[in-house]
Amino acid sequence: MTAAGVEWGCQTTNNPATAIQLNVKTLLRHVQDLVGFVVKSVRHTLGAPDPRIDVDLDIDPRRKRRCSCCGRPGRVHDILPQRQWHFVPLWNIPVFLHYAPRRVVCQRFGKPVVEAMPWNRGKSPYAAAYMVFLARWAGRLSWKETAEIFSASWEAVRRSVEWVVAWGLEHRDLSGVTAVGVDDLHHGRGKTSLNFLTLVYQIDRGSRRLLWIGRARTEATLREGFDELEKLRAGFLGGLRVVCSDMWKPFLKVVRERCGQALNVLDPFHVAKHLNEALDTVRRGEQSRLKDKAARKEAKGGRFLLLTRGTKVRGKARAKLKAVLASLGRTSRAWELKESFRRFWLYRSPAWASAYLRAWTTRAMRSKIEPMKKVARMLRAHEDLLLNYFRAKRQYTNAMVEGMNHKARVALARSFGHRSFDVLKLVLYHNLGDLPEPPSSHKFC
Ligand SMILES: [Zn+2]
C-alpha cells in the first residue's frame, strides 16, 4: 500500500488567489461528524487492481473521551485493538476508516465501556452513514442489485436494512392512529397457513403506512399484532375508531374482542373479490359444458372482460363481452348480479343500503346459481358489518391498503430467492413502514 498522503486534490477555481485545496480529509469532515477525532492520514492504493482509500483516525487531544452509553466524559481505561469500518465509497472507490477505540470508565456504572464514536453503531463493521446509504438504495433496487452495484456483500445490505429498520421502528410515532386496515398477503407457492402474512396498516387520511406484520393469518397472529402495538403505545387499541377488514372470521373475532368500540368496516374491495370469484366459478362450469370448441375458446377469452367493471369495458371489447354473455346464459345472469351489486356502495343512508342489500340477496337466492347464492348468504350473515361502511361515512376502504399490497408484492418479487420470514418482514417494513431514518449530517443519496 502506498502512503501517498493527502496531497492529491483539486482547485475550486483557476484563480490562484482564491484556490482552495480540496482533499479527502476535508470531504470526510464535511460528510461525517468527527468531533473528538482527527484524521491522521489518508492512504490509497489507486493503482492496484482493487483500489481503496484508507483513513486513519486518531483522538483529538483537545477533547475528552466520552462514554458510549451515557455520553459523559470518562477517564481512559485502555485501548482496544484497531478496528476497521466500511464507509460510503468515494467515486466508486471503497473507503475504510481505521481506529483503535478507547475504553473509558463510565461515570454511571463505574465500569470500562467503549467510547462514543459518531460513525460507529455497536459492533457493526459498517459505519452508520454507509448503512443508511446501502439501505436507501436497497429500498429502490433489489438487495442483490444494491450489493452488486456498490461492491458490497448481500450480507452487508441485509444488516444495513436490518439496522435502519430497527432504528425506524424504535423511533416511529404511533400516536394519532384512528383507522387501521387488516389484510392478508399471500407469498410463496403453497396455500398453507404459513404462506400468508397478516398485515396491519394505518389508513388514516394522509397517513398510510404498514404498522405490523405477522406470520400466518390466524386469530393468534392478529391478537399478537394488536397486543404488540398496544404495548408500544398504551391506548393504541382504545384510540381506534375504524378497523377495515374482509370477512375472514378469525380477524372479525379478534377485532370484536380487542377493539369493540371501533366500527369494523367490511371492505368493498373484498366483497367485489368474492363476487368475482363466484362469477368465475359459474363461467368455468358453463364453459366446460359447451360442445363447440370455438365457443369454448371464446368463453375462456372473455374471462378478463367478465371480471372487469362493466362500465369500463368499451368499444370492441364491449362487443366481445356482449357476445360472451349472449352465449352463456347462467354466466350472463351471474354477471348481471355482480354488476348490480355496485349500486349498494353508492347509498348514503344505512337504511337504504340495507333495503338494497335485501332486495339483491333475494334476487341472488332465486337465481338458482349456487356460487352466487353462497355469496348472498355470506353477505346476509354480515349485513350489520357491511352497513358499518355507511356509518363510517363511506370514508374508509382497504383500497389504499390494496395499493400498499401491490407495492408489497413488488417489493417481495424484488427480494426473490429469500423467502425467510425475517427477510420478508424487513423488506416490507423497509418499503411500506414509512419509518423515520437515523439522522445524519449528510445525505449521500
Ligand atoms: Zn456511561
| Secondary-structure content class | alpha+beta
Q: Please count the helical segments.
A: 16
| Averaged pLDDT | 90
Q: Catalogue the unreliable spans.
A: 1-12
Find the count of extended strands (DSSP E, 2+ residues).
Answer: 14
**Portion in helices:** 40-55%
Biggest sheet layout: 5 strands, mixed
Bound molecules: zinc ion
The strand order across the widest sheet is 12-11-10-13-14
Gyration radius, rounded? 30 Å
Helix and strand sequence: EEHEEEEEEEHHHEEEHEHEHHHHHHHHHH
What share of residues are in beta strands? 15-25%
What is the domain tally?
Answer: 4
N→C terminal distance: 30 Å
What general outline do the C-alpha atoms trace? Answer: elongated
Describe this structure in words.
- The chain is an alpha+beta fold and about 450 residues long.
- The protein is about 45% helix and about 20% strand.
- The strands form 4 sheets. The protein has a 5-stranded mixed beta sheet with strand order 12-11-10-13-14, sandwiched between helices. A 4-stranded mixed beta sheet has the order 3-4-7-6.
- Helix 2 packs across helix 4, helix 10 packs across helix 11 and helix 12 (about 350-365) runs antiparallel to helix 13 (about 370-380).
- It is elongated and about 90 Å long.
- Mean pLDDT is about 90; it is low at about 1-10.
- Bound molecules: zinc ion (ZN).
- Zinc ion binds near residues 69 and 106.
